[in-house]
Amino acid sequence: MLIEPKVLKGFRDFLPPAEITRRNLTEKIEASFRSFGFVPIDTPALEYAEILLGKGGGETEKQIYRFKDNGDRDVALRFDLTVPFARFVALHQGELAFPFKRYHIAKVWRGENTQRGRYREFTQCDFDIIGSDSPAADFEILLMIRATLLGLGTDVRIHLNHRGLFNRFLAHLGISEKSADVLRTVDKLAKVGADETGKSLACLAGDSNARKILDFINAKGSFEETLDRITELSGVCEESSRLALLRRFMLDMGSGDVFVLDPSITRGLDYYTGVVFETFLTELPDIGSICSGGRYDNLAGLYSKAKISGVGSSIGLDRMIAALESLGKLPAAATYAGTAIACLKEEQSGLYQALASRFREAGIPCEVFLEAADDGKLVRQFVLAEKKGIRWLVIPGENPLQDVLTLRDIGARQNREGLSPGEALNWIATHTGADSK
Amino acid sequence: MLIEPKVLKGFRDFLPPAEITRRNLTEKIEASFRSFGFVPIDTPALEYAEILLGKGGGETEKQIYRFKDNGDRDVALRFDLTVPFARFVALHQGELAFPFKRYHIAKVWRGENTQRGRYREFTQCDFDIIGSDSPAADFEILLMIRATLLGLGTDVRIHLNHRGLFNRFLAHLGISEKSADVLRTVDKLAKVGADETGKSLACLAGDSNARKILDFINAKGSFEETLDRITELSGVCEESSRLALLRRFMLDMGSGDVFVLDPSITRGLDYYTGVVFETFLTELPDIGSICSGGRYDNLAGLYSKAKISGVGSSIGLDRMIAALESLGKLPAAATYAGTAIACLKEEQSGLYQALASRFREAGIPCEVFLEAADDGKLVRQFVLAEKKGIRWLVIPGENPLQDVLTLRDIGARQNREGLSPGEALNWIATHTGADSK
Asked: Which of A93, A128, A225, B314 could form a disulfide with A221 if both were Cys (CB 3.0 to 4.6 A apart)?
């Protein structure tokens, strides 16, 4: 009786081409994070449920993978990287150098309803600066988003706002106590449209206030014009000064065009207290924000008396992959090795490996084919090379290390004959682009 | 009421220095795998328990993290990468190009007793060639172990044996039916010693057979001498011919010294049917095998009628790290960025980032410090740079992008003054080793 080989709904196998794509992407993302001096951490996939759930929360509790382990401990799989980071900081604050700039690229698990193409296992790429209130930290996160996504071949517009400024405006209207509800309602503007949002706001705060709020969040114009307009509505304050300083940083850096001051950005999550932002691809804005985040003033409050503020963000890898795919910016690769040695006689495998190691030592990844056809013909190896995404097939001579060889360009179906191993190596090195690394 | 920030027993946080070490190591391992044309896959952390447990197994069942998910499915965390690979191959065999060479570096979970310093969450680095019976595949796996560990700065001796040859020998003795027990007993030789092993074998197979088995597994000498001796004891057969061919590959490759024919190697696991091997560091053999494996003839039999043979191995990352550490071969690094820009005036942060981006664009990772001291003194930034493992601190001029700057060597406590940004960049590039990438 065979067991049916299947994966759980919402979970995925990654075959080599998809996995190579994901790795190429995360390696580029990591290289960018590292170039800014961010350092990696890792935390357990499994934690005490009490730690992950904190005060407990309706939606989270329903989605989390939670169970009793063999020691009867109440444990759960992490559902994001923020809560484990808060616990990590509370536990290790004495060992960290502040401001602490960390990234964490890892899988998380949520038992969500998978109807809308959501996954139950997916990768998050989080990056945060903690232990600094400086606007320079806000700016660095914004800049890093831009640099990282530019490194993936996509330009972005980053829409930002200041939660505190919005709250001051609501205080002016005398509806501070409804702040959380208003923020959540405004957060859905892009999804449900202005009419619907207006109606919801009217129910929450009355017709007149609803109009004023819509007026505030719809302030359109240059960064400077919008800042003037919302400062007028909320009053000059430290929040508006911070936005002005951030604007100066942007201009000093020569990247003013990248940033849009957008008062309709609120981010639904309650823990943000400062700048909040969302990132849109200029060529594909409709896919929604592919990198959001903001400033918070008490990261680890559930686990520590120390009040640790910070600013951070997260790239949604799956959405990013989907976007790059639909933009045709996801180079497909089925292998890292663009070169292979053909197998003419299986008993020569030691010599083929010796030949291949010359290529490898020169920085050219090189596979060795393991089996020769009984009839001595190479056609099956041509087909295999093509299937594997190999471009150069080295066909060795009688004595593989001494004799000249033939180099076949699999795609072009062309042979170059009479090359020494060194000549073949040089030819491959000069005729191969990014696919040989 | 604060929640105590703690991790589950057997689980670990990785702070940046430890995580950077792990990443440097896995990146080198991956680069080696890729250079041989191996391609990565990934599978879910969570699978149907039925699939992971297969026919069910005593030890595994006790160690596995198994639970009911929100949809009442019987699920479990993977406890190794072999079983998910078997399931993967059964499910996707039509999509793969055979022989298929894959690697998989990922975490696995076992609720083991943690008394002996074992972890409940750890990383495995598996690599296999499936769909080929060729001795060339056996040889490639052996060679890749050597090349990969050499790339980590350690030389190895790989001890190998052929299960089939051992079984033929047992058949000669007329005790084939005790093969599994004998193999398991012999597998413990290094742990319990020859005396103890002799006694256990005598109980299993009688005094005379025990002596003959000890004689067989103790055949010492060169590869060729040992092969002659055990061929004599078991008879000439395809297994001895395969070992002779493997020996030829080793000599053709010029790596004869690396390999030891060791009839005491049996590997306890039942599913191996051909060559089996263990890998020892020449400088630290007592730590035990850091990379073991072998050939199997039916990988996916639980899930598919297709009989898929292969050969594979696995590097134990934690043991490897411990070994390199005790050999002093684990370069410590607390950051990827060897350079930072000091902060003199926070309102100049945009200009500091512009300066840093020149370094980053030249391939020099560069952090920007975010906060200036109130008294204008830099001593706290010197301390921070040292704590972060930064070597070069760039102290910008009044106008950071135009004026000359001072470059401080943090370790040497020396300043070089009056450098243009370009001069500083060149100085860093030429005076930094592997830590700037």
From this structure: A225
Alpha helices per DSSP H over B36-134: 49-53, 58-63, 82-92
Q: Does A47 touch chain B (CB under 8 A)?
A: yes
- For an interface test with A, the pick among B98, B353, B390 (most A C-beta atoms closer than 10 Å) comes out as B353
For residue B315, pLDDT over 50 is answered with yes
Class of B1-130+298-333 per CATH?
Answer: alpha beta
Q: pLDDT: is B341 or A432 the higher one?
A: B341
A-interface mutation test, from B30, B253, B317, B383, most A Cβ less than 10 A away: B253
Q: Reading across the β-sheet that carries B339-341, which strands appear in turn?
A: B366-368, B339-341, B392-395, B405-409, B414-419
The closest CB to that of A304, out of B2, B77, B101, belongs to: B2
Longest alpha-carbon distance in chain B: 89
Q: Which of B7, B19, B368 sits opposite A41 (nearest CB)?
A: B19
Structure tokens at A30: 């990591």
Q: Which of B39, B71, B91 minimises the CB distance to A5?
A: B91
Contact B139 A245 (CB under 8 A): no
Interface test with B, best of A70, A121, A243 (most B CBs within 10 A): A70
- Tokens read off for B67: 């639970």
Instruction: Give the C-alpha separation, A149 to A32, whole Å.
Output: 9
Residues of chain A with CATH 3.30.930.10: 8-147+282-293+311-328, 156-277
User: How close does chain A come to B334, measured CA to CA in Å?
Assistant: 8
Mean pLDDT (chain B) is: 93
Alpha-carbon gap, residue B217 to B104, rounded angstroms: 33
Q: Where are the beta strands (DSSP E) in A19-77?
A: 39-40, 46-48, 66-68, 74-77
Distance from C-alpha of A293 to C-alpha of B342, rounded to nearest angstrom: 26
pLDDT per residue over B93-139, tens digit each? 999 999 999 999 999 999 876 666 689 999 999 999 999 999 999 99
State the CB neighbour count (10 A cutoff) for residue A45: 22
Taking the mean position of all CA atoms in its chain, how far away is CA B165? 29
- CB-CB neighbors (< 8 A) of A142 in chain B: none
- Residues of B whose CB is below 8 A from A91: 5-7, 13
Residue B435 pLDDT more than 70?
A: no
Pick the CATH number of B339-431 from 2.40.240.20, 3.40.50.800, 3.30.420.10, 3.40.50.300: 3.40.50.800
Over range A337-364, report the average pLDDT.
96
Nearest to B37 among A96, A254, A337 (CB): A337
Query: Is CATH 2.60.40.290 the right assignment for the domain spanning A8-147+282-293+311-328?
Result: no
- In the structure encoding, which two tokens stand for residue A78, read together? 């992490």
Instruction: Identify the pLDDT of residue A14.
Output: 97
Taking the Cβ of residue A241 and every Cβ of chain B, the question of whether any pair is shorter than 8 Å is answered with no
Band (pLDDT 50/70/90 cuts) for residue A437 is very low
Residues of chain B with CATH 3.40.50.800: 339-431
Interface touch B357/A302, C-beta < 8 Å: no
Residue A140 has pLDDT above 90, yes or no: yes
Pick the CATH number of A156-277 from 3.30.930.10, 3.40.50.150, 2.120.10.80, 3.90.180.10: 3.30.930.10
Nearest CA to CA, how far is B139 from chain A (Å)? 8
Residues B263-308 have pLDDT tens digits of 989 887 778 999 999 999 999 999 999 999 999 999 999 999 999 9
* Residue B245 near chain A (CB below 8 Å): yes
Q: Where, residue-wise, is CATH 3.30.930.10 in chain B?
A: 1-130+298-333, 147-291
Instruction: Kindly state which CATH superfamily the domain B147-291 is placed in.
Output: Bira Bifunctional Protein; Domain 2 (3.30.930.10)
Entry pTM? 0.94
pLDDT tens for A44-59 read 999 999 999 986 666 7
Whether CATH 3.30.70.60 fits A339-430: no
Instruction: Quote ipTM for the complex.
Output: 0.94
Residue at A319: amino acid letter? R
Please check whether residue B366 is in contact with residue B339, taking contact to mean a CB–CB distance below 8 angstroms: yes
- Residue A109, pLDDT > 90, answer yes
Residues from chain A that touch B6, judged by Cβ atoms under 8 A, are 48, 51, 91
